[in-house]
């Protein structure tokens, strides 16, 4: 195995110290499939308890200082108070995710619905989410639309695109100067014949029309099998349109498994593009969008944060000068070997050292387990209704 110079290790550790990974409030609640939601003991019963769990993830990892909210799953009377509580716990509220996919009204779509009254309702919700961002101090509004059709001929494709463009423009106009709109795409599901924002090209076209603060978000689970996601990363970076990631893993469809579990090499390749473009600390949001149906949730979120860190550390270890020299010389095998040397490095010792320097336990999962937090919340969080988006 290649030995890396101490200066290279120090540079990697510096970059990792500044990395930020946002966790998702819904990862802490109960989740499942359309067949069954398996409840877990100790699961939060309200947004305040979800934030407490997110704060625990940050306490042990040191790199997860924000938590994303999903509205209305995380609806509270006073968002400024929720933000204050988050600050007390050492974290902040992050991206606001809009939800226009769970009302009966949205059967034929939300912002693309043929009925203008339904479209108005959906747009009002998107604007309400910006009001919430003002109260929470959030930078990003993340939009994912389940809109689409199940049968050819069900509705007109171009008309639906025009409705979508109008809704996005109205919402974009409501954003403050420091706020961004992140538009997510997804290949299929729940619509089966045609999805209104199925791919990065569609998301990109809308974002270009809207302006600089409209950016595309890549949910790693939202592609066809075999899609070269790092190519999409490179294209969007080149166009200045990569707003962030919803990280998770997939084997089949939108499985929402832990990032870096199904294909850690893919995660490395994605982070390599980010590092190459020097975009690690320039505003690309690294978010988790996962559900932990079987495994203990907080521990799974910690594991996911560590997986992103490990992939980033490996990407930072790529010797760019050697890579470029091999590429320029047309040395296919050497170029590939430079990349694989970095990927095959065990970065766990480097990360353990870094955590010690940051005043953290070198083994976040062991430290979390020793803390007794899960046992405590299991005992405390009795009664009430557990959070979950129910399936
Ligand atoms: C969607 C999409 C969104 C997420 C919802 C729960 O598939 O990934 O980002 O908010 O699921
Ligand atoms: Mn997502």
Topology record:
Elements: H1 6-17, E1 23-24, H2 47-61, E2 66-71, H3 79-88, E3 92-98, H4 116-136, E4 140-143, E5 148-149, H5 157-174, E6 180-184, E7 194-195, H6 200-210, E8 214-219, H7 229-238, E9 242-247, H8 264-276, E10 285-288, H9 297-317, H10 320-328, H11 332-343, H12 348-357, H13 364-371, H14 373-380
Parallel strand pairs: 1-2, 2-3, 3-4, 4-6, 6-8, 8-9, 9-10
Antiparallel strand pairs: 5-7
The chain binds beta-L-rhamnopyranose and manganese (II) ion (MN).
Residues 144, 184, 219, 246, 289 line the site of manganese (II) ion.
Structure, explained:
46% of the residues lie in helices and 11% in strands. It has 14 helices and ten strands. The protein has an eight-stranded parallel sheet with strand order 1-2-3-4-6-8-9-10. Strands 5-7 form a two-stranded antiparallel ribbon. Helix 2 (47-61) packs across helix 9 (297-317), helix 7 (229-238) packs parallel to helix 8 (264-276) and helix 8 (264-276) crosses helix 9 (297-317). The mean pLDDT is 97. Bound molecules: beta-L-rhamnopyranose and manganese (II) ion (MN).
